[in-house]
Amino acid sequence: MSIIKTTAELEAWLGSMNRRDKTLGFVPTMGYLHEGHLSLIREAKAQNDLVAVSVFVNPTQFAPEEDYESYPRDIDRDYKLACEAGADIVFYPEVDEIYIPSSSTAVEVTGDITKKLCGASRPAHFKGVTTVVNVLFNIVRPDRAYFGQKDAQQALIIKKMVRDLHIPVEVVVCPIVREADGLALSSRNVYLTPHERSQAICLSGSLQKAEDYLSSEADDCRSAARLIKIIGEHIQCQSLASIDYINILDGETLEDIEHIESGRKALAAVAVKFGKTRLIDNRILSI
Ligand code: PAF
Asked: What is the pTM of this model?
């Protein structure tokens, strides 16, 4: 197993693997791997003969004021962790390898699914994600690709893109991995000060409150507005928390809903800033 840096080397590796009778699982990441990424690699290993992991901090999904430059990076550690979890190769390209210098093409999913939630506060983000995932799919040509439910909106958008463009890749979405106290794992958790870290558990706590209220006998327990209020009140108890969004939307299309309907999934999603660190979390609500 080795680190592959160029598309030519990757092509050579794919050629040497006699792919005709083997399946390839692919885990695209921006590196600084944590247990959430490793759970994707392990799942990919369990479902495929070969596993490729990419580590690429994608500049096009960051706005100019965001943390592209300071995003945590440690390829030696990532390489070791990916190997231990079952990766056969780690693809670690330079920016020019992914975006050829003359490139002027982007892939964009339109509509509510990209405009709501993170799309409202990070307007160019998902266009960057869908473009890079397309490029990576074209280079790696996997049978299956693995994404985390923590980025629920991203997973829905990628599934839609794959359907809309007839991309021959099965998208597998794996459960959120959490710390013992409920905080969803994220590479950005390393930015949190101890005080922020102790308050950040309010994200998962607030979603639990919504779930509890939904299962209560209260008259308005299915009301999206009521559940959003419950989530907001819980988060606002934390002095360092600044809410970016709280919403409850249709779990497939991200269209607005007024009530949680029986047999239909709703997505409760939150984004909260602690100092400069923006954290997201979500929960599928259903009855
Ligand atoms: O989820 C991520 O880490 C990134 O958005 C992805 C899918 C690797 C694209 O850069």
From this structure: 0.97
